[in-house]
């Protein structure tokens, strides 16, 4: 049931049917692990913590790492290199464009 509830994501922000089915299958796999953990321990808080950690790690990897990398690139020599390359690409200084 938990996996099937994710079918409602179809069409949300342009999500395709194939992507939705892949998500449902992945969530069902996770749900089996959480159910086994609950049935083995008899404690609901363990699968809840596991679910939180999976969501947290996913968010850090998908959002946090690229964000920190982008901020890091905005300082020091890295920024100057990007500005120089922007000038070359846009041909702002009368030089030949790289494109």
TrEMBL record:
Residues 1-57 form the CAAX prenyl protease 2/Lysostaphin resistance protein A-like domain. GO terms for biological process: CAAX-box protein maturation. The keyword GTP-binding does not apply. Keywords: Membrane, Transmembrane, Transmembrane helix. The keyword Transmembrane helix applies. InterPro entries: Rce1/LyrA-like_dom. The chain crosses the membrane at residues 20-40, 52-75. One of its GO terms (molecular function) is endopeptidase activity. Belongs to the UPF0177 family. This is Abortive infection protein.
């Amino acid at each position: 049931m938990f996996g099937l509830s994710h079918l409602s994501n179809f069409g949300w922000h342009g999500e395709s049917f194939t992507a939705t089915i892949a998500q449902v299958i992945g969530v069902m796999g996770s749900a089996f692990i959480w159910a086994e953990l609950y049935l083995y321990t008899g404690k609901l808080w363990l699968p809840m913590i596991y679910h939180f950690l999976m969501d947290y790690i996913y968010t850090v990897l998908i959002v946090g790492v690229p964000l920190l990398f982008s901020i890091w690139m905005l300082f020091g020599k890295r920024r100057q290199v990007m500005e120089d390359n922007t000038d070359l690409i846009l041909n702002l200084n009368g030089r030949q464009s790289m494109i």
